Amino acid sequence: MSRSLLLAALLAVSIPAFAGSFAGSSAGASSAGSSASSGSSSDDDKVVLQARDDAASFIASEGRIRGAQLEAALRYLREHDAEARQASDLALAQAILAR
């Protein structure tokens, strides 16, 4: 039971960080770099935003339903973000929904 509570607490703390980091947030981008990355940021947002329904289904089904858009977003996030490589599919799906 305490392991479940610890996991829930860790997820609650880390989900906002995942959402900002994984979903193409521009909070850390400088104005000089924003014009160079604006095209890719838009594409990043599309991949993640299109996966929201699949992420909701994944979470609601306790991981049994894995849609193609969610799979694409998980793959994309892990290819482009070091933190995402260490995160579980559930944590990433929750971060996608929190976006």
Automatic annotation (TrEMBL):
The keyword Signal applies. The keyword Signal applies. Residues 24-41 have a biased composition (Low complexity). Keywords: Signal. It comes from the Bacteria. It holds the Pfam family DUF2388. Residues 24-45 are annotated as: Disordered. InterPro entries: CHP02448. Residues 1-19 form the signal peptide. This is DUF2388 domain-containing protein. It comes from Pseudoxanthomonas indica.
